[in-house]
Structures are given as structure tokens and as C-alpha cells.
Amino acid sequence: MNRTVVKHVIVALVLVLFQTLVLQYAGFLSFVPLVYLYAVLIWPVDMPVWRALLLGFLIGLAVDVLLDCPGMHAAATTFAVYLRRPLLRTFLSKEETEGMEPGERSMGFLSFWKYALVMILCHHFVLYLIESFSWTDPLMMLLRTLVSSLLTGVLVFLFERFRR
Amino acid sequence: MHSLIQFLARFGNTLLFVVLEIVALVLLFRYNDFHQSIALSSASRINGKIYETREQVTGYFLLREKNTLLWQQNGELEKKVARLEAALRQSGREEAPLRDADEFGYIYARVLKNSVIQQTNSFTLNVGRADGVQPGMGVTGPQGIAGIVSACSEHYSVVVSLLNVNAHFSCKVKNTDVVGSLTWHGGDTRYGWLEELPGYQMWNVGDTVVTSGFSNSFPAGLPVGCIESFDKTSAENFYTARIRLFTRFESLADVRIMYRTHFQEQRELEEAAK
Q1: Which of chain A's ends, N or C, has fewer CB atoms near its CB within 10 Å?
Q2: Residues of A in contact with B117 (CB under 8 A)
């Protein structure tokens, strides 16, 4: 149990720093993978929802603070976390085991990717929707959602290759 | 009491979700207050340290290109100085007329953290109040103006970039009196938009755009960009021109903060007059 907690804390820290110190500079135009969401994707299936919500909010807030844009990432991540449980329930075809962590191996390729893609799309959509409130160009917003989701998806795919 | 517990057990998570979203949105919509307070920004102590460390690593990248650029600029400046000195000697005057140019001084700074892919971009500098930086001072990069200082802590400051959809900069077309307001519409970091330009006859595609000098932040005549194309479809008598910005924001590393030598005096006077 403790090892799992430590592992998830480290994953979240590394991904938040990777996002804000490296990826944010690798984006082109306004498309950027938002890969810190992966930390949320792989939390245990049976994690209490209230805990997931609070931690998701904190991860988003950390990204916000590091990027000088309070609130946006916190709002989007909290939203994605709120969807997590129902999505897992919908897409999980296998029997749910205690402490199971979503992944290609544990859930099966198709189930995991249905869950991951919906999460990514929802998170990115909410983020760009909130960001564009001060500036309205819905087509650009949708384009950013789609392209950034694709980029995030590619990175999540790579992470899954290296997962034990 | 019993029903309250029942309610919480059933809707507690949703309630928590709603509360967290409200907190996030409050943070978002009071962005400017928080930005000013700097506790939650990249100018705060921990963030400043993180980005300072990052800059120590990335600062070495692209050094060759930056060197070349500096070398070229140095050459241009030397040429200019020689030309000016020659002109002064010819007219038989002393250096007195040049003293006007001393009205502005420089604080040299490095960019610790930079963003170009948000809608409201900003960057963080390694100097702060202790170095004499104050909100409102203008910041220029090697090629042109870059932004205006929005908040300072003791050792760091945050600068609102030209690439900010909420920021407006007073600019004019070089060698004319045509004044407009420069802003950014998001997306492409190479282009800004000069809005509220009067009739087309007074300026041309290809003209250089410089600072107007109407704000306290910049002296007049600093390079900003050049007019690439224009848009007629805006309000009847006004035009919006697409400006190719000189400053390359992606690779912004060394900047100068401009301070008026009488900044403090003027500020105090303005305060007193209120």
C-alpha cells in the first residue's frame, strides 16, 4: 500500500515538472501535449473518489502555479477526475480487482484506450474552453483540443510501452 | 442529522467536485489579483528557484546564435556611434544634445521562464525590486520590445508579454504620426495586430512600427515590427494591420528593463497629485 502511494506521488511530481519545465516549451503554435493527466489515468480503480478529486485539483493547481495561470488546469483536471469513475465502470470489461491500476495490460488494449481517450479529450476540451473565454474562436479551440489530445495520446502510448 | 449523513454519503463527491470547480474558477476570474499578489505566480520564491535552476541548464543552448546576433548588433551600434560622432563634430557641437537620450536607463536581466503557447503569455526575469525593477517598466529584447513588468517580488519579476490577448501597447508607424494600439490575437507568435489605424494613404505595407512614447514604459521610437498586410473589414474608418513582430519570443533569453531616470520622481509626483 505504502509503496503504491510513494510511486504515485513520484509519478505525479515528475509529470508535473516534465509538463511545465520541458513540454510547455516543446509545443508549437498553441498545441501542446498535456501529459500530467497520465498521473491521474493510472490511479487505482478503487481509489476513493473524494481523495482522487482533491489530488486531481492539487495536481492541476501545481501546473497552474508553475505556468502562471491560476485555475485553468485545476478546473480541467478536477473535471476529468470526476468522470473517471463512471468511465471506468463503462469501459472496464474485465472483473475489477482490488488495487487494480488502469493500463493496457490490466484492462486490455481497447478498454484502456477508450477510457484514456475520452478522459484526455474531456480534459483538454474543458481546459481550452476555459482558456478561450476571453477570446472567442470556437474552431481554433476545437482544433487545439484535437491536436493536443492527439499529442497527449502519443505520449501516453509511449509511456504504456515502458510500463511493467 | 441522519438525513444529512445520508445526503453526504450519496452526493458528497459531487458536492466536493462542485466546490473544487468553484474554487478553480474563482482563482481564474480573479487572475489579476493573484497575479499581482505573486504568491501563486512564477515570481514566488519556490517557483523562482525552480525556474532559475532550469535556466542555468537551458541557458547554454543556442549560445552560438545569440553570440552571432550580439556581434552583428554591436557592429551596427559601432557604425551608428561613429556616424553620430562625425555628425556632431561637423556641426561643431558638444555632446550636450545627446543627454536627452540618457532619460532612460537599463537594467539587464535574464529570462527564467517563458511561455508562448497560452492566450495570456508572460515571462519571468531574474531581477526584482531589490534590483530597482518596478511594475510598469518596459522590457526590450535584442530585436525589439517584448513586454511590460506586471509584478515584482524581491528578486524576481513577471512581465506581461506582447503575446497577450488582454494587453495593448501604444505604437506608431515610423516617421509618421499614425498611432495605433498593438495587441495579439493568439496562435501565431510571429504576428501581432495594430488596431484603430486611420486612413490607408498615410502608411504602407512594409512600414516599420515603433513605440509611440505615449506611455511611461517606453521611450518613443523603439522597434516593434513591420506591417505585413492589413484588413479593411473592421470599423469603417479604421484599419487593422498585421504586424510581423521583430522579437522572437520563443528564444527570448536576455532582455533589458528600461527605467526612466526620473521614474521615482514622476511616480511620487503623480501620487501626490491624486
Answers
A1: C
A2: 24, 27, 29-32
